[in-house]
Write a structure and sequence with these properties.
The complex is a heterodimer of chains A (484) and B (489). Chain A is an alpha+beta fold. Chain A folds into 3 domains: 4-299, no CATH class; 305-417, no CATH class; 425-482, Arc Repressor Mutant, subunit A. Chain A has helices spanning 62-74, 172-189, 228-247, 271-274, 293-301, 307-318, 322-329, 332-342, 347-365, 376-387, 393-406, 410-417, 425-438, 440-447, 454-464, 471-482; strands at residues 4-7, 10-23, 78-79, 82-83, 86-89, 99-102, 109-110, 113-117, 123-135, 139-141, 150-152, 159-165, 201-210, 220-225, 256-260, 265-268, 281-282, 289-290. In chain A, helix 6 (307-318) packs across helix 7 and helix 10 (376-387) runs antiparallel to helix 11 (393-406). Chain B is α/β, with parallel strands linked by helices and 489 residues long. Chain B has a domain at 7-257: Amidase signature (AS) domain (Amidase signature (AS) enzymes). Chain B has 16 helices and 11 strands. Chain B is globular and about 65 Å long. The chains are: A alpha+beta (484), B alpha/beta (489). Chain A binds chain B through residues 48, 51-60, 87, 89, 91, 93, 96-99, 149, 151, 277, 279-281, 284-287, and chain B through 80-81, 87, 89, 94, 97, 99-101, 103, 203-208, 210-212, 238-242, 318-319, 321-322, 324-326, 328, 330-332, 341-342, 345, 365, 368-370, 373, 377.
Chain lengths: 484, 489
Amino acid sequence: MSALIKGETGEWEVIIGLEIHAQVISKAKLFSGAATAFGAEPNTQVSTVDAGFPGMLPVINGYCVEQAVKTGLGINGTVNPHSVFDRKNYFYADLPQGYQISQYQQPIVSGGSVLLDMPDGTTRTIGVTRLHMEQDAGKSLHDQHPSQSYIDLNRSGVALMEIVSEPDMRTAEEAGLYIKKLRSIMRYLGTCDGNMEEGSLRCDCNVSVRKPGGELGTRTETKNVNSVRYVMQAIEYEARRQVEVIEGGGTIKQETRLFDPGKGTTRAMRSKEHAHDYRYFPDPDLLPLEIEPAWIEGLRKGLPELPDERKARYIADYKLTPYDAGVLVAEQETAQFYETVAKGRDPKLASNWVTTELFGVLNRQRKAIQDSPVTAKALGGLIDLVSDGTINGRIAKEVFEAMVETGKEAAAIVEEKGLRQVSDTGAIEKAIAEVMAKNQDKVAEYRSGKEKLLGFFVGQTMKATGGKANPGVVNELLKKMLAP
Amino acid sequence: MALTHMSIAEARDALKAKKISSAELTGAHLDAMAKTRGLNAFVTETPERARADAARADAALAKGAGGALEGIPLGIKDLFCTEGVLTTAGSHILDGFKPPYESTVSAKLWQAGAIMLGKLNMDEFAMGSSNMTSHHGPVKNPWRRKGGNADLVPGGSSGGSAAAVAARSVMGATATDTGGSIRQPAAFTGTVGIKPTYGRCSRWGIVAFASSLDQAGPIARTVMDSAIMLQAMSGYDPKDSTSADLAVPNFEAAVERGVKGLKIGVPREYRIDGTPKEIQDLWEQGIAWLKDAGATPVEITLPHTKYALPVYYVIAPAEASSNLARYDGVRFGLRVPGKTLDEMYENTRAAGFGAEVRRRILIGTYVLSAGYYDAYYLRAQRVRTLIARDFTEAYKTVDAILTPATPSAAFAVGEKMDDPIAMYLNDVFTVPSSLAGLPGISVPGGLTADGLPLGLQVLGRAFDEETVFAVGRALERAANFTATPGGMA
């Protein structure tokens, strides 16, 4: 896929930076003890702190800090031992305090990088500028009453991590991979569930275009895009729009835009919607956040194996291709499933079974691997039957389908259906003799030099044995019996 | 002795000895409250609750139980949220607001057995030095000039607290100090007020004005009473991230510690041109009193003093502009409808905030705005650091600092209202220590020629309220201030 898009005046390079808002996995909010569970009745998870009542004060939730530090370490960032919470001031009905507590000039994490696993097996490094902590606002519901809005403050005060990338991405595809990779890392860490439908991962897309190697163009920011697909659509639309505007003699305004998922387009927000001077200043209710370097090191030591390390291990130890390894490690559950299957077995065979047969079924049934109809142990059992010659590869696929259908173990299905591989030479010789008898013309052709017909005889013999014959033995015997 | 003329220390002993009951004591103060209603010191009176609590206190006392303030009737500044009891912060915008929670400081007082008589009037959102900005109308000072009949202000913002204590309708009151709001009204009413070190008392449940400066403290009639009250009000609160996780010393024990051997700083920069001679003289007198008591006066310099007021009037409004954003008509208090959300905000805030509050929100918004932040807010923060450093340097050589509490005695209701700068100058002696977060007490030192009280201020090191009390007590003993206001119950 070309990184450049074609306009009327030639090629254009697209410059993309993303700001990801990731909801921290935590039972309590960032500055209050209120609960954070998704889907609760409106305004049932709200403390007087979250509702901005007079005299209420924020107190930092140490667990949320731990989660942010872990995430910072997971993206190779520098955790700052001293960071500051600021107030971002603006009026909105779902912002009870009239300000959002965020981090402005001194974030908890500076720098970092995320490695993209490209489809061709190569990788690309995307820089991360910063990660900072902030509290979420509430939710305005505009469709509940003809003339008034309803406010749900359940989300008000929930901890978010805002992760800002460098403008290092060049295609919508890379942007999609970046979000997926970041989500994968955070899921490994247990710091964000990455559930975009529930709003626990939201994305602002900064997009500009330029002639390759030229000066950077003016960027626009498309806010609050909430799926990987929409992010990619928004970027593609926005890049094409900008090229058209510029080529049509116009200029790009630095502005905030909104994505319309129905049309797949973006539109400028009314200027009033973003004409904010946020008047940031350090929140006097909170002391600067001081983090002991020893504590950071302790968290670093306790980090789980992350996707990149796991992928490297799969390539080195299991001799998998980078692509397959990347696919298997993307989700922790998949990797764990795979490792259970691969344990004590041929890792490549295990990889093939997981990435082709199992993924096929999961896709078809729209199921996550945790809900797989075939357990890792059961799939391992099936592979064992292939490896020890009990069944052949073709029968194995049939057994697998039966396992999906019935949830039974492979061995049971093999016994039940009598699918055990036939390696008994006597029985196979008999079957071959019958095939040869029925196809004497072809036997003659083969013997006169048309050796390509061997495949035909293999097929016929397998058919005659109900597919159960050991293909190796069939081959060997056929060659012997067909020999002139 | 009339029950309303007892000190908290005396009443406490009499209650313990069962010479008096809390019912009698509380009843006498409720009568005084009714008699002095003309002062407009109370926003809300809670007599029924007071009587019920007094009965409970008497029951506890009868069993020989009860806390440090068992049965003592107090007033609570309307800035402290009191559960189920109207809390307005002196503002129209908090109309009808009955908090579902109790501030940490008032809860501690109830835990110690104190009785609430009611909620005390104050400048709107604690912004003011005269109590003229209250939505509930001005508070009158129970003091009048000799031979005059003009109503005087009690100072502010804790004007209701100071007036009620001076008028003997409460034995003590909670107050808050952001730039002088405890010490200045105490000085104007002949009472004792201490602002402890920032972080000594929890700010949780106190309606915020300027979070980095706001600090609770008591106003009472003696240094000992203020120590007894502060003891009960102080302590670390995990709900306030800026409260200090330090043990609270025994303040009461420190009061009579004496000043022998202490070095008392006399800051050169506090000799401000135009300060009335009476105030200069009282300061000299205070120095002499402490010297007589065995302390050594030392002239010191606090070179950045002159920047304190401008720095304060950048930082405090900046924080206030943000703290007061939550009064938007959406969730509590006043709502004035409008056609759009923005219009509702505008209508509500225009109707709900008084002129001084609006002025400070505008100033604060301005100094935080893009393009002005560095020149105002950031620079003010830097100078604030220098002001704090002045004190740190001074305390290398002295143990406490003595200054006048205010540049004038109480002025008349309506005076200085057309000139906010003249009003702001009231806090010239109290603001620097507020910016540095340091403790300060105002103790009555004497009367002006026309019979109005003047206060002396003692400042101390961070978390050394003990020395402040000891020096304050030495001044109190020497001054032997026994005058009482005419407007007393």
